[in-house]
Amino acid sequence: MSELKAEGIVAGHGATTVLHGVDLTVPAGSTTAILGPSGCGKTTLLRVIAGFHRPDAGRVVVADRDVFGAGLNIAPEHRGLGYVAQEGALFPHLSVADNITFGLRRGDPGRATRLTELLDLVGLPREVAGRSPDQLSGGQQQRVALARALARRPRVVLLDEPFSSLDAGLRASTRRAVADALAAEGVTVLMVTHDQDEALSFADQIVVMDAGRILQAGSPLDVYTAPADRVTAGFLGDLVTVVGRAHDGRVESALGTHATDSAAEGAVEVALRPEQIVLHSADQPGIRTGAFGTVRHCDYFGHDALVHVALDDGSEIAARLGAGGQVPRTGERVTASVTGSVLTYPL
User: What span, in angstroms and rounded, lies between the C-alpha atoms of 270 and 278?
Assistant: First the structure.
C-alpha cells in the first residue's frame, strides 16, 4: 500500500523544464530518501508534492486522496502533510511553544497536552517551551521544526535537506533523534538530500535522481550493491574503475578474473567498491595472486582508511581498510585482489 504517489510530474521554472515525467511511489510507513546532486530536481519534486510549486502536468495522491491533478489543486495546508524546511524556518518572534503549536486552534483544550507530547517526542526539555528560537542550538531548532510539522498528526512528513545546515557533531545525533521521533509517531517520511551517507543510514527506500529523472529506486543495500547504471554507482559512494574485457559472465582486468552479473560483452569498464579490494604486503609469504602495485598515499579517517595504490600496469585504485587493520606505508609494495562480483559497463 502506498501513502504517497506522484505520477507523470512535469515541472519547471520559467522556460526551463526541471522534472521530466517523474513517477514516485512511497510505501505506507516507509522512510524514503530522494538522493541526487544539486540541481537535479529533488527539491522541486518535494515542493510539488507539498503544494508550494504548481507542476505543468501530473498527479499527486496523498493517503489515497488526490491533491493535484486535472482541474484539482488542493492548498498545501489541506493536503495532510507535515513539512520541515532546510533550516527549520521557525518564526523568530514566537516562542518555542507557539512555534510548535502554530497549526493548532487557539481554543483547542488538548493544545497544552500536545505541546508536552511533542517536546518529549523530539527529545527537548520542557523548559525550552518559553524560549525564543535564537536561544536554541541548530540541532534544537530542527527538533522544534519537526515537532511543529508533527503537531497536527499528518500521515506524511516531507523533509527538505533537514540536516545540511548542522555541523558534523550535531548532524548524527539530530538525525537519530528525528528518526526515532518519526518512527514513534508512525508517519510516512519523504526526505530529499545530496548526502549519500545520510540517505543510506536514514532511509529504507532510496530514490536516485539526476537531471530531472529517477534513475533507480530500491532498498539502500540493493541500490548500493546493484546500481542500475554508471551514474547511480558513482553517486552512491566511492568507486574503483579499471579497464577490462567481459565474456560469458566473467571479466578480466588488471585486478584478475572476476564474476559479474552484467550482460556486457567485450571491452568494458570494471567498477567495484573500495571495500571489495584486499591488500597484502608483496613480501608476505604465500602470496601468489593479485595485482602488484605501490602505495601512493593514505587518507585516514579514524573509523577507516582509504589506501591509494598505483598498479604496475598504470591503473589507479583505492582500497578501504577498516579500523584496526594494518595500514601500509607510502611507497610499500602490495598486492591487490578482489572479493565478490564486480559491475561492468560497456566502453
Answer: 16
Strands 333-338 and 277-281: antiparallel
What DSSP line would sit under 260-289, residue for residue? B-----EEEEEEE-GGGEEEEETTSTT---
**What is the rounded distance in angstroms from the CA atom of residue 77 to the CA atom of residue 60?**
15
DSSP character at residue 224: H
C-alpha 274: how far from chain center = 20
Strand 188-193, strand 31-35: pairing: parallel
What's CA 285's distance to the chain center, in Å? Answer: 43
3-state secondary structure of 194: coil
What would the grid cell of residue 165 be?
A: 545546515
132-177 pLDDT tens trace: 999 998 889 989 999 999 999 999 999 998 888 778 777 888 888 8
Whether 73 contacts 24, CB under 8 Å: no
All domains in the chain, ordered by first residue: 2-234 (3.40.50.300), 238-346 (2.40.50.140)
Q: Residue 117 contacts by C-beta under 8 Å, 6 or more apart in sequence?
A: none
Residue 117 neighbours by CB distance under 10 Å: 15
What 3-state DSSP class applies to 136? coil
Closest to 60 (Cα-Cα) out of 179, 136, 158? 158
Q: Which H helix or E strand runs over 127? A: none
* Residue ranges of E strands in 14-155: 16-27, 31-35, 57-62, 65-69, 72-73, 81-84
Does pTM top 0.90 for this prediction?
Answer: no
pLDDT tens across 276-307, in order? 999 988 887 766 667 999 999 999 888 899 99
Q: How far apart are CA 67 and CA 227, in angstroms?
A: 33
> Angle of helix 138-150 relative to helix 168-185, nearest 10 degrees?
20
Planar angle of CA 131, 133, 134, nearest 5 degrees: 100
From residue 165, alpha-carbon distances to 9, 128, 140, 141, 169 in Å are 29, 21, 12, 11, 12
Distances (CA, A) of 32 to 65, 145, 190, 202: 20, 19, 5, 8
